[in-house]
């Protein structure tokens, strides 16, 4: 049986309106000793029990919690005790209830006190109290890792995030975020924290970022090619899908594309540059595979323009990155194009996990908030042949890089390759026209 003697000493002491110092003086101990008894840190020596019983007008069994009146509290009684302690800003009493829930109770008890914990927001007298936070952290950790609690992880973590300081909240986001549930993604948890802090302006901005990520994931997801037909390798069907994806993207950005820039809209990179290049590479191969060679070459040229612009990083900055001195804030930025995302800063940089040999293998889009923190990152693939090979292997029957064969020897195709390799000497780029697995392997 767990002894609740600390709580009982506190309750009887308050009943006779004594302070801890007054009780300590009658017992011949320090006020700190009484405080430690009531906090549950230590127990009083047995010799003090009958003395305190006489002073309080109760029995030693009452102090030990053996009497009928010291039965196990109900969930409602725990809630009332916590509310009283919070109203009185009595941190030891608050922690006592939290500790009792953690050690002796389960889901029902937590849900009974949950709205009180969730009500501790900025401006609340107990908000940021480190002594209380230590006990809350133990409770939340037990709920996330123990076997007694079965409350949804998102409920626990969202509640926890609203109580922590910025540094600890970021640790929680990094530790507990999961990619498969939107509300447990990093951006989802940041939205939850902003909601918990009643920071509605920041919450709105973060929700707009999450909407962008969802749209980008849809545009970027090659598995849509496999689920839309019994014949996913049909270039006619795939061409229409990517044509509609581009139209959706242009509509979202409020653009009327220039005929010479069907992928980018106007030849300039933006926050969707990774998706634009991916759709463009696939679209060009599908157009070539269905006989629309001129449009396929126009699409590739537009992709080439985007590649040139996002890889135009000054040589001194490139050398700094090669030496391991990485600072993405020095990299070029691109526009969001969308007013709701205008508060974001979008950087284009070489992949952060590059190797100095053959550097860089690809680019990366970093989406940062107003505080400079990275909210989202996306690979930007810049090599057509490598991309198509990956795409074919990933979704199997959804793509065939041989669809490009009819245009590999076309003057516009070879001119594009020559232009890219001239402007970007380090760039492997769109591979040479000859369609040879051996040659292609050597180039890579």
Describe the model.
The chain is mainly α. Among the domains are: 5-70, lambda repressor-like DNA-binding domains (434 Repressor (Amino-terminal Domain)); 229-444, no CATH class. The chain contains 21 helices and 4 strands. The protein has helices at 5-15, 20-27, 31-39, 48-56, 60-64, 75-87, 91-104, 107-118, 130-145, 153-163, 166-176, 186-196, 200-220, 224-227, 235-252, 273-289, 293-310, 315-322, 384-395, 411-423, 437-443, and strands spanning 333-334, 345-350, 363-368, 374-380. Helix 6 runs antiparallel to helix 7 (91-104) and helix 10 (153-163) crosses helix 12.
The radius of gyration is 32 Å
- Helices, by number, come to 21
> H/E order of the elements?
HHHHHHHHHHHHHHHHHHEEEEHHH
For the sheet with most strands, the description reads: 4 strands, antiparallel
**What is the percent of helical residues?**
55-70%
Shape, per Cα inertia axes: elongated
Distance between the termini: 70 Å
- Count of DSSP E strands? 4
* Spatial order of strands in the largest sheet: 1-2-3-4
Q: Average pLDDT across residues?
A: 81
| Percent in strands | under 5%
- Structural class estimated from helices and strands: mainly alpha
Residue runs with pLDDT of under 50 for 5 or more positions = 225-230, 428-444
Short description:
The chain is mostly helical and 444 residues long. It is 56% helix and 5% strand.
Record keyword descriptors for this entry:
444 residues; mainly alpha; 434 Repressor (Amino-terminal Domain); 4-stranded antiparallel beta sheet; 21 helices
């Amino acid at each position: 049986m767990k002894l609740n003697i600390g709580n009982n000493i506190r309750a009887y002491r308050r009943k006779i309106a004594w302070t801890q110092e007054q009780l300590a003086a009658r017992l011949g101990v320090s006020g700190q000793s009484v405080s430690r008894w009531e906090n549950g840190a230590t127990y009083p020596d047995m010799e003090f029990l009958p003395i305190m019983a006489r002073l309080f007008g109760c029995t030693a069994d009452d102090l030990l919690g053996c009497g009928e009146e010291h039965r196990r509290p109900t969930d409602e009684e725990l809630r009332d005790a916590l509310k009283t302690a919070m109203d009185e800003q009595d941190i030891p009493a608050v922690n006592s209830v939290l500790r009792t829930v953690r050690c002796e109770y389960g889901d029902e008890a937590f849900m009974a006190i949950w709205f009180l914990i969730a009500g501790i927001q900025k401006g609340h007298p107990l908000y940021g109290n480190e002594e209380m936070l230590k006990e809350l952290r133990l409770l939340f950790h037990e709920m996330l890792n123990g076997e007694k609690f079965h409350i949804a992880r998102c409920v626990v973590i969202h509640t926890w995030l609203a109580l922590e300081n910025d540094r600890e909240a970021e640790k929680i986001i990094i530790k507990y975020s999961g990619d498969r549930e939107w509300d447990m993604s990093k951006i989802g948890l940041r939205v939850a924290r902003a909601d918990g802090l009643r920071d509605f302006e920041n919450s709105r901005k973060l929700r707009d970022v999450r909407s962008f990520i969802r749209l980008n994931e849809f545009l970027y997801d090659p598995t849509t090619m496999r689920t839309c037909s019994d014949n996913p390798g049909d270039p006619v069907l795939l061409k229409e899908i990517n044509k509609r994806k581009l139209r959706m993207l242009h509509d979202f950005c409020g653009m009327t594309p220039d005929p010479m820039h069907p992928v980018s809209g106007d030849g300039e990179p933006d926050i969707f540059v990774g998706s634009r290049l991916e759709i463009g590479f696939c679209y060009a191969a599908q157009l070539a595979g269905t006989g629309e060679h001129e449009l396929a070459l126009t699409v590739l040229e537009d992709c080439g323009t985007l590649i040139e612009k996002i890889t135009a990083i000054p040589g001194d900055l490139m050398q700094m990155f090669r030496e391991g001195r990485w600072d993405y804030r020095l990299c070029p930025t691109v526009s969001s194009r969308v007013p709701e995302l205008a508060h974001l800063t979008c950087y284009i940089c070489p992949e952060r996990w590059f190797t100095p040999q053959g550097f860089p293998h690809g680019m990366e889009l970093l989406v940062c908030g107003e505080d400079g923190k990275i909210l989202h990152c996306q690979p930007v693939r810049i090599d057509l042949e490598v991309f198509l090979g990956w795409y074919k292997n990933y979704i199997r029957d959804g793509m065939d890089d041989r669809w490009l064969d009819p245009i590999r020897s076309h003057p516009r195709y070879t001119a594009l390759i020559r232009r890219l390799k001239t402007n970007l000497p380090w760039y492997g780029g769109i591979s040479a026209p000859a369609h040879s697995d051996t040659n292609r392997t050597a180039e890579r």
